[in-house]
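I had to read the description of the data format several times before I understood it. In essence, backbone conformation is discretised, so a fold becomes a row of integers matching the chain in length. I therefore recommend that a typical entry be quoted early in the introduction. For illustration, here is how one protein appears when written out as sequence plus structure tokens.

***
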Amino acid sequence: MRFLVFQHVDVEHPGVFRDLWREAGIAWDAVELDEGEPIPSLEPYDVLVAMGGPMDVWEERQHPWLAPEKAAIRHWVGDLGRPFLGVCLGHQLLAEAMGGSVGAAGAPEVGLAPVEFTDAGKTDLLFSGFGDGMETFQWHGAEVTDLPPGSEVLARNAACAVQAFRVGQAAYGLQYHVELTEATVPEWQAIPAYAASLEQALGLEGAAALAADTLARLADFKAAARRLNENFLKIVAAAQAASVQ
């Protein structure tokens, strides 16, 4: 199995998923779009993953690579029908690429926050074993405002009505982060746009405490990432089986 990963800043990589994919024998290639790396042929890949980033989906003038990235996601999901996982910015890119819309949130959502699963989310294989909801790590100032046709909301909370959604059978967007490692918060705090949203959301004291608060919950986050990864790989296997029938 071979994954292609779209990255938008070097510190927003697959994080703990790198270890989980290695355990599962999955090969993966990363394309650093913000550094001008070109999108390769999609044909050799089984799964497309799009990570987060400090830019917004509508900033195509500042980041011209956003347009071909959306086109690639649209082709991957809409034409090829292959499994997709988008995280944060990747979640928003999936929504816009497939005909939905994204806008600025009323306020940044940063830090630890619970989400609840909808009825569709409770029965979706991606969230099997998670119960009615889960604790999440958030860091976003934009949100999906209109879903693409043929999609379902899988998770939500009071701050954001679309915390997770699915398009078709195997394309998923997660507004929150599940890939956390020990280095995640310190590395992201070094990005000026992230530091500003962090301070706006949590204040100076809350911002200073976020790394320690997250580290204290890291074992739980890693366990959740492992479960979600196992569930997603089952979805990928089912999609591959269906494609050869």
Remarks:
- The chain has one domain: 2-243.
- The helical segments are 17-23, 66-80, 89-97, 119-122, 184-189, 192-216, 218-243.
- The chain has seven helices and nine strands.
